[in-house]
Amino acid sequence: MLISKKMSFICDFCGIVGDHSPYLCATCNLVVHKNCISLPRNIRITRHYHVICFSYSFQQNQVEDCMCRICFTEVDTSYGRYCCSASGCDYIAHAHCATNKSIWDGTIIKEGYDERHGPSNLITDVIEQISIEEIMVASKIKHSYHHHNLRLTFSGEIKDDSQCDGCMRPISNPFYSCEQCKFFLHKDCAELRKEMPHPFHKHLLTLSNSHDEYGYSVCGACGRLYQGFSYRCYKGDCCFEFDIQCMLLSDTLKHPSHKHPLFLVHNNKGTSCSACFRKLHSRDVAYRCMKRCDFSLDVGCATLPLTAWYKYDRHPLTLTFSDDSEPSQLYCDLCEEKRKPNRWFYYCADCDDSLHLNCAVGGLPYMKIGNRIKGTGHRHPLTVVKNIWNCPPCKVCGEVCNGQALECKESECNFTVHRYCEWDLQWII
C-alpha cells in the first residue's frame, strides 16, 4: 500500500533512508521506496558474467560479512541485494549499485533463461584435432580474421620480434601460426568470444578486427594507440573501444606487485599510481587495494606485460617492482640514462640488464613493427620501427630516436617521431 505522506524510514529492499511516500506491507512489516518497488528480479550487468537475481530475506539482523563487488563496501544481508544465480558463485552487490545507470543498461532477463549456451568465438572451422590428456584440442583452424588456415604450436621456436596479431604482445607458447604468411595468434586470442562485457561500459562489446582509415585505434581504457583485435560497442551512438589487454581485465585484479587483491575504483582523486607515481584525477579509473595499503595502479601500468625483449639480451626481461641496487648502479642499459629508485623496470637476472619501462616496451608497444599508419599530419604514411640507430632527430624533441618510433620510409624524407613524443602530437591522436 502506498503511504502518501512524509515519513522517515529505511527501505527494506535497498537499505537506504527514505523520507516520503513509501510502500508498506502491514502483513510482512516491509517498507519500500517507490523506486525500489519495481526492482527487476533478474538482470545482467557488465561487471559479472552470470545473471544476478534480486534476493530479500525476511529474517532481519542476519548480517553476513560480504563485500559489494561494485562499490567494495559491506553488504548488509538483512536488506535486499543482488546475488549470482550460478552455482558456487558468491558474487553479491547492493541493489542500488547493480541498478545504477552506469552499470546496468536496463535489460531484464526473463525467467528460465539458460546460461549454458554462451556466446561463440570467431573460429569458423576446426580442421584438425589432437588429444591431450583426454581433452580434444583444435590443432588446425580457420579463423574469421585471417584468410589462411592456422596451425597450433605448443613449443615452437619464437623469434624475439614476433607479435600476436590479436593483442600485439610478444608471441608466446601456445600459439596459432599461418603456414603461408607471418600471422600469429595466441591460443587465448584465437578463442576470444564474439561478445564480452567490460566493467568500464554498460553494454556488451563485440570483437572486431577493423580499424579506421588511419590504420590504428585508441584504447578507451588506457589511452594507448594500438592495432590488432579490439572490442567495440555498436549500441546507437556509442563509440567505446578497448584493446584486448584492457578488455580482459576484470573488476578485480591479482597483480604480482602486491600481496592483496586490487579492485577497480572510479574516483581516485588525491591518489597516485604506485608504479609510475602519476597523480590520479577524479575521472581516472584505477585498481586500488582496499586493505589500507595506499596501493594503486592506473590501467596503463596494470596492463604492462610481465616480460619484454631487449635486442642485446637472449633472455626475456622480467617486469620488476623493487630494486636494492646501489644508486651508482641505477642506469638503463638501452638509453644509458639514470633510473629513478622505487620505480618499476625490466630486468634480466642472468645478464644483469636493466631497462626503463618505456625503453623496454616503447611508446607504441601495441603497434606492429613494420605496419604503416596515416593521418599523422605528415604528407606520407609513417612506419612503426624499433631499435633504429643513426636516425634523424625527432621532429618534436630534437633528440635522436633510440628505440620505437614512427618513421617515414619515402626516399629523401627524414621525418621521424620519437617513441615518447607521439603523445605530444595531438594530430596523431
What does this structure look like?
The protein has five domains: 6-98, no CATH class; 123-190, Wheat Germ Agglutinin (Isolectin 2), domain 1 (2-Layer Sandwich); 195-247, no CATH class; 307-361, Wheat Germ Agglutinin (Isolectin 2), domain 1, CATH 3.30.60; 367-429. It contains five helices and 33 strands. It has helices at 95-98, 187-190, 244-247, 299-302, 357-361, and strands at 6-10, 17-20, 23-25, 30-32, 42-43, 52-55, 66-67, 74-75, 81-84, 92-94, 123-132, 135-143, 149-153, 175-178, 184-186, 195-198, 201-208, 217-218, 225-226, 230-232, 241-243, 252-253, 262-265, 286-289, 296-298, 307-308, 317-320, 345-348, 353-355, 372-373, 382-385, 405-407, 416-417. The strands form ten sheets. Strands 11-12-13-14-15 form a five-stranded antiparallel beta sheet. The longest helix is centred in the C-terminal third of the chain and has 5 residues, at 357-361. Pfam families: C1_2 (PF03107). Residues 142-197 form the Phorbol-ester/DAG-type domain. InterPro entries: C1-like_sf (IPR046349), DC1 (IPR004146), PKC_DAG/PE (IPR002219), Vacuole_Formation_Reg (IPR053192), Znf_PHD (IPR001965). It comes from Gossypium hirsutum.
